[in-house]
Amino acid sequence: MLAIAANDGVVRARQVARTLAQQCRLSLVEQTKLVTAASELARNTLVYGGGGTMTASLVDERGRRGVRLVFADQGPGIPDVDLALTDGWTSGSGMGLGLSGSKRLVDDFVLESAPGRGTTVTITKWGR
Amino acid sequence: MTERVPVLQIGQILLVSIQTDLDDQAVVHLQDDLTARIVGTGADGVVIDISAVEIVDSFVGRMLATIASLSLLLDAQTVVVGMRPAVAITLVELGLSLGGVRTALTLEMGLKVLERSRVLRQGPSQELAESGLSDEDGVRADPAGQ
Ligand SMILES: Nc1ncnc2c1ncn2[C@@H]1O[C@H](COP(=O)(O)OP(=O)(O)OP(=O)(O)O)[C@@H](O)[C@H]1O
Ligand SMILES: [Mg+2]
After folding, report:
1. Tens place of pLDDT for every residue, chain A, 128 residues?
2. Do A35 and B95 touch (CB under 8 A)?
3. Which domain holds residue A117?
4. Least C-beta-crowded within 10 Å: which of A81, A103, A120, B139?
5. Is residue B146 assigned to a domain?
6. For chain A, how big is the Rg over CA atoms in Å?
7. Which CATH number characterizes residue A49's domain?
8. Residue A74 distance to chain B (closest CA, Å)
9. What secondary structure letter does DSSP report for A128?
10. Residue B51 sits in a domain of what CATH number?
């Protein structure tokens, strides 16, 4: 488990994601997509969640191997998840592409959040 | 711990080559440094070499777009060179088209882009006429268009 408490946590999240993606033998394009999604979600954890963690693992399910990354924080949560997942919607000064874009970049994307209860985003990228 | 990316000046051009995985603070510094250097040097061109960059996320993408439009306001043209194919594919899927950012495949082609916009502004220079640089081949304006 990796702490995301400052900017260097976002950099380390990218490095860990890259290492696992290589271990899983993802193609270069798939690696790049996973690392980019990790970067977006780690930054959200830091900026909006007030810091949190990334838990990274290789997973085996139904004969498939994949990389799973779980971003968790105890921050304010997301009041309207559908709105937050809309391309271009931001509550701050971002471009509103982090959540919606990451969702497109990975195979599985699960966002759990409730006001006052923090946010957890779980993404998985499967190898072939 | 935040590092600063060196900004090199070659004649009228500022050259930045991003060689490491920058944290967000370093990205903001780079944007500020470049803006100050454009003003301080009167440079008319900026080349940002991202051939060593493994991912461009929304933060870095926004920095590139901001520098491109800021530099225009300061009478300088920015070209982003060397974007890796995997990065371009990912950027498009992320939803960032970087429409306002000039790109070129290589540093050499990027310099040609700048030379050409200088010609458009000032009329042909002696060197250009002698070097026989053409204004075609291999230069594209949009990474999404590949
Ligand atoms: N971990 C989180 N905790 C609380 N709110 C969040 C969290 N992650 C995202 N959000 C909310 O969802 C919105 C959309 O997030 P998204 O990452 O898509 O865009 P952004 O961060 O605003 O801009 P970008 O990522 O393009 O720079 C954010 O503006 C924020 O309000
Ligand atoms: Mg974001």
Report:
1. 999 999 999 999 999 999 999 999 999 999 999 999 999 999 999 999 999 999 999 999 999 999 999 999 999 999 999 999 999 999 988 899 999 999 999 999 999 999 999 999 999 999 97
2. no
3. 2-126
4. A81
5. no
6. 14
7. 3.30.565.10
8. 22
9. -
10. 3.30.750.24
Asked whether residue B142 is assigned to any structural domain, the reply reads no
Residues whose beta carbon lies within 6 Å of some atom of ligand 1? A 40, 44-45, 48-49, 73, 75-78, 84, 89-92, 94-100, 119; B 58
Which range of residues forms the domain containing residue B40?
7-133
- Domain assignment present for B12: yes
A19 contacts: CB under 8 Å, gap ≥ 6: none
- Tokens describing residue B134: 């053409």
CA triple A85-A87-A91, angle to 5 deg: 70
Find the chain B residues whose C-beta atoms sit closer than 8 A to any C-beta of A. Answer: 1-2, 21-25, 54-59, 61-62, 84-87, 89-90, 93-96
Rounded to two decimals, the ipTM of the complex is 0.94
Number of domains composing chain B: 1
**A98 neighbors A47 (Cβ within 8 angstroms):** no
CB distance from A7 to chain B under 8 Å? yes
Non-local CB neighbours of A23 within 8 Å, separated by 6+ positions: A58
Write the residue with the smallest CA distance to atom 12 of ligand 1: A84
Interface of A with B in 23-82 (CB under 8 A): 28-29, 31-33, 35-36, 39-40, 43
Residue B85 belongs to a domain: yes
